[in-house]
Design brief:
The structure is a single chain. The protein is α/β, with parallel strands linked by helices. The protein has two domains: 2-170 and 306-336, Rossmann fold; 172-303, 3-Layer(aba) Sandwich (Rossmann fold), CATH 3.40.50. It has helices at 2-12, 34-42, 51-58, 79-95, 110-120, 139-147, 172-186, 203-216, 234-247, 259-271, 287-295, 306-321, and strands at 43-50, 68-72, 98-102, 127-130, 152-155, 166-169, 191-197, 222-229, 251-256, 279-284, 300-303, 326-331, 335-338. The strands form two sheets. The chain has a seven-stranded parallel beta sheet with strand order 1-12-6-5-4-2-3, with helices on both faces. Strands 8-7-9-10-11-13 form a six-stranded mixed beta sheet, with helices on both faces.
Length: 350
């Protein structure tokens, strides 16, 4: 049923292409065979197009009869993934397509998420969307989906290297670099900086950290004096930040790789009586962080757009089912929210 649905769509939409010479390999030749080859040929793995440009080019998708979209997300106790889920489900409802969401209880359990992804593949999905905990943790499931003619789309975090898998989200390395440049702009005379890292197995943590440290090195008057993982945990982040401030009381700025941990850092800064004296830049743009920015407890956050990502993932799945060509990377850029523009984002996440 799944392969027949895709086959009809591919045949009917073969003439509808966005990207010239779409292919899954650098030399332009498709990889794989059968249904997987058909899907891979629709994804230009070398192309990166921003979401607004792509949407303007392809237009609103339609849901084929019998389509069901499955999204394997992370723990919904992290508010960010709740917004990603909301974007996915709201768009699916809007377009009248069946959907199902699978979430995990442990943010760091690659095994639990893999089990959920395998379960999703047994639920009649015609497209599989996921936010992997690790870059390769779901690759076997993605490949299995493609082999069955089922589109595979990653929403945020771990960009897969499996040919034919589409990534929808921002550049995590750029997010870290943006935070470094923002801090540099706020500290023209330089100073000591600390970083609170996410889970060491997370692509977001690795890439945000790499981007931050590399860009900070271009500002020689800034010194990274401490960097430690809090594994996305707010309480751990508060404890670590307290220790860092005790060892280095002249720290001028913190970069936290997500806003949940930043709230813990904010509490540590407040306990030391340093609110407003120590810069605090988070990542994600969750509502609690924006409230702290408005109240002066946080300096800024590099905000992502999870609701847009979730909705765009639905569109990409349906475009592929309709035989339309898409880029391997649909870019949904992040942006800085601070006191200058926080009032423009009073609720939710974009």
């Amino acid at each position: 049923m799944k392969n027949r649905t895709l086959g009809v769509a591919l045949a009917g939409g073969a003439a509808i292409v966005l990207l010239a010479g779409c292919s899954a390999t650098a030399d332009g030749s498709p990889s794989g065979t059968g249904a997987a080859s058909s899907l891979v040929s629709l994804v230009d793995s070398s192309a990166k197009i921003d979401v607004d440009t792509l949407t303007a080019s392809l237009g609103a998708p339609t849901a084929p009869a019998g389509a069901k979209l499955c999204y394997v997300t992370r723990t919904l106790s992290n508010e960010f993934w709740g917004f990603e889920r909301d974007g996915f489900e709201s768009r699916a409802k809007e377009l009248g397509v069946s959907y199902q969401t699978f979430d995990v209880t442990d943010e760091s359990s690659i095994t639990e998420q893999l089990d959920k992804a395998k379960s999703a593949m047994n639920q009649g999905c015609t497209a599989l969307l996921a936010s992997p905990i690790s870059a390769t943790g779901l690759d076997t499931v993605f490949q299995d989906a493609l082999d069955q003619g089922i589109p595979a789309i990653v929403l945020n975090d771990a960009k897969s290297s499996v040919p034919g898998v589409v990534y929808v989200g921002p550049d995590a390395t750029t997010i870290g670099a943006t935070a470094a440049d923002y801090i540099a702009g706020k500290l023209p005379n330089g100073g000591k900086v600390a970083m609170i890292e996410g889970d060491p197995g997370s692509s977001n943590a690795i890439n945000r950290g790499d981007g931050f440290t590399a860009q900070l090195a271009t500002h020689p008057n800034l010194q990274l004096v401490a960097s430690q993982t809090a594994s996305w945990d707010q309480t751990k982040a508060q404890e670590i930040a307290t220790t860092m401030l005790t060892a280095n009381p002249d720290i001028k700025a913190f970069y936290s790789q997500n806003d949940g941990m930043a709230l813990g850092v904010q509490a540590a800064i407040a306990a030391k009586g340093l609110t407003g004296q120590v810069l605090l830049v988070g990542t994600d743009g969750i509502p609690q962080a924006k409230k702290q920015i408005a109240d002066g407890g946080m300096t800024a956050t590099v905000s992502e757009r999870p609701t847009t990502e979730g909705a765009t993932g639905v569109d990409v799945a349906l475009w592929l089912l309709a035989g339309k060509s898409v880029p391997g990377w649909v870019d949904v850029p992040a942006f800085v929210i601070d006191s200058a523009n926080v009032a423009q984002y009073p609720t939710g996440m974009p």
